[in-house]
Amino acid sequence: MPPAAPPPATSPFPEAAAKPGAPQSPAKYISNAFDNPDKDAEFVLVASDNVYFYVHKWPLAKASPVFKDMLSIGDRQAQPVGTALDPLHGLPFVEVTEAAHTLAALLEFVYPVTNPTIKTFELLSNLTDAAHKYDVAVVLKAVQLSLRESRFMDPQPLRVYAIAKRYGFSQVEKDAVRKCYAINPAKVPSLLIPREMEYLSARDLHRLLVYKRARAKGAIDLLAQARLSQVEKCLACKRRGCVWWPYFNSLASDQLREQPLSQALSRSLLNETKAAVMDSLDCHVPMRTSSRCSNFFTDLDQNAGLITYLQTSIDALPWEYSYP
Fold first, then answer.
1. The model's pTM
2. What is the pLDDT of residues 259-291, one digit of tens each?
């Protein structure tokens, strides 16, 4: 069953063909995926953009206690639900606040559809809202799995964090916190624009900042420990880190303050260190003073394993910290 397509160019509803000059009522359309082909639908859900979904009571009532209560009202009353009936099939209908694409996605999980897909973050966010509103357990489970997928989590960790906080998705929240260490809303204010940011309090955002600073401090502290325990003495000048260590330490510290994650450090940092030393010491000419060491290139390459050691050590740091 494909997802509901955009409204067609024409409408099968008789009132859509209004007389010239007569007041125009909003056009009504039928979902391509829920168009009642077998003429056995029992109920109609009308999306906010006037798309009609012809549905059956049993799967909705089974999936959602909210839908179950909604549909049972008509069973207990002589007058069907709603003040009017669907003009095509005479079925009772209920207007909902969700747009057609969101409602179609929700129904695809309720009906036996093979591998329903969620293609955009906007749809995932709207679907999460709808699943919570109607208490559809199967969809709530599905959206939590989707929120943890890298295609949604990696580019939008703060939005995922906001959704997780709002709906109490604890495991999703933990995963999102880790990904949020890689972003900086202070430098990229557009991260705070999406509507999901309304779900976060100032305290929620401050907690992320405190966690990030604490982890950055722990990561930077590892640098000093690594120099003593992992860096070999230069064969020429007999110093740990030779002349390159202060430059490496400064570059690595800056990167870890921005992103206290193992992936913030890579072997490219070695080349950046070499360039920094060359610029600072004017190493384009032969070194002649005792403050310089002509072996620093070789010494730095021999300590390349330092990157792997630091990455492993940073991965072992806590992800959450005490918060006042």
1. 0.81
2. 999 999 999 999 999 888 888 765 444 444 445
pLDDT of residue 10: 37
With contact defined as beta carbons under 8 Å apart, do 276 and 270 qualify?
Answer: no
Q: Give the domain range for residue 98.
A: 1-116
Distance CA 314, CA 45 (A): 52
258-265 long-range Cβ contacts below 8 angstroms, 24+ apart:
258/184, 259/181, 259/182, 260/181, 260/212, 260/215, 260/216, 260/218, 260/219, 260/314, 260/317, 261/181, 261/182, 261/314, 262/310, 262/311, 262/312, 262/314, 262/315, 263/311, 265/307, 265/310, 265/311, 265/314
Could you tell me whether strands 51-55 and 43-46 are parallel, antiparallel, or unpaired per DSSP bridges? antiparallel
Residue 267 in any domain: the answer is yes
Q: Is residue 231 part of a domain?
A: yes
How long a stretch of residues is the chain? Answer: 324
User: Has residue 169 been placed in a domain?
Assistant: no
- Provide the CATH number for the domain around residue 23: 3.30.710
Q: How far apart are CA 207 and CA 212, in angstroms?
A: 9
Please answer whether residues 158 and 182 qualify as being in contact, where contact means their C-beta atoms are separated by less than 8 angstroms.
no
Single residue among 116, 135, 153 that ends a domain in this structure: 116
